[in-house]
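Retro notes (design track)

What went well: tokenization of the new backbones is finally stable.
What didn't: we kept losing track of which sequence belonged to which structure.
Fix going forward: every design gets posted as structure first, then sequence, in one message. First example under the new rule, 83 residues:
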């Protein structure tokens, strides 16, 4: 049986990944070349790959990428103290 703390830990760790997927989905609407697949490459972080309207979404993707690892460390430290 899955315990509440375990489910909460998994949800908090997965939250940035789900958010990044949503942001990349929104960014795909603003790609300059829609035939390119940018999901698995670092080109997804380059401003020249998107139109001007997509630059705000790109900034959110950068912010999320920068904050993901500190978020995971914080979640691991908090849940490590509970066990």
């Amino acid at each position: 049986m899955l315990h509440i703390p375990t489910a909460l830990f998994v949800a908090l760790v997965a939250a940035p990944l789900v958010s990044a997927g949503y942001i990349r989905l929104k960014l795909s609407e603003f790609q300059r070349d829609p035939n390119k697949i940018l999901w698995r490459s670092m080109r997804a972080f380059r401003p020249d790959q998107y139109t001007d309207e997509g630059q705000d979404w790109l900034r959110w993707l950068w912010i999320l990428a920068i904050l993901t690892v500190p978020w995971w460390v914080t979640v691991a430290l908090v849940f490590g103290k509970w066990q």
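Added context from the reviewer: The mean pLDDT is 87.
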